[in-house]
Design a protein that fits this description.
With about 140 residues, the chain is an alpha+beta fold. Helices cover about 30% and strands about 20% of the residues.
């Protein structure tokens, strides 16, 4: 009697602002690692909670998979949103479940579809994208 065939690992990506996350979902015991560090050691706590959101929504599906996330660029919350997006997409690809996909969409659309907003470039004549030097005529 041989072991049942293992499911192929699924790769997905998530992007937010300048942060990019590569996610690998494989068959396993429910372990989640970010840049080879276990999720429960990830700081800040707000970012950790954000990343764990798709796992909490997926429920028992997530306890049967191991997730490895490689994230780079951007700040801590941009990285967290990129990892969250990649994780949600990876779980949907791995399970091929329409129900899970619709659950993610109902909860928060940005879990599966990206947020295209970017920082507006700075222009001349001021310190930022929109602000200008004030005029004084007196």
């Amino acid at each position: 009697m041989s072991a049942p065939p293992k499911k192929k690992p699924v790769l997905s990506t998530g992007k937010r602002k300048t942060a990019k996350a590569r996610v690998a979902v494989t068959e396993g015991k429910g372990r989640v690692r970010i840049n080879n560090i276990p999720i429960h050691l990830h700081q800040p706590i707000m970012a950790r909670e954000m990343i764990l959101e798709p796992i909490l929504i997926a429920g028992d599906v997530a306890s049967k998979v191991d997730v490895s996330i490689e994230v780079a660029g951007g700040g801590p919350l941009g990285q967290a949103e990129a990892a969250r997006m990649g994780l949600a997409q990876g779980l949907v690809k791995y399970t091929k479940s329409k129900r899970l996909k619709s659950t993610f969409m109902e909860h928060d659309r940005t879990m599966l579809s990206g947020d295209a907003r970017r920082k507006e470039p700075k222009k001349f004549g001021g310190p930022g994208a929109r602000r200008r030097k004030q005029k004084s005529y007196r």
